[in-house]
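A quick word before the example. In earlier lectures we treated sequence and structure as two separate objects. From today on, think of them as two lines of the same record. Here is DUF3126 family protein written that way.
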Amino acid sequence: MKPEEIKKLDAYFKRTFNPQMVVKARPRKNDSAEVYLDEEFLGVVYIDDEDGDRSYNFSMAILDVDL
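And the structure line, produced from the sequence above:
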């Protein structure tokens, strides 16, 4: 994922959900980025380029022990 995309996603997550959320590049992956709340890993944002329409999918697993 390009640095400018990560900056836009970071601003979106901060504005929409929580100012402490941070989007970071993933090592050795260029189709996704990691999302954190402070230092806690929340999930992954993936690029979806199907049919020429670029969108982003956020995937977050919720463990039973966290409920």
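Notice the following. The two ends are 32 Å apart (CA to CA). We will return to this example when we discuss secondary structure assignment.
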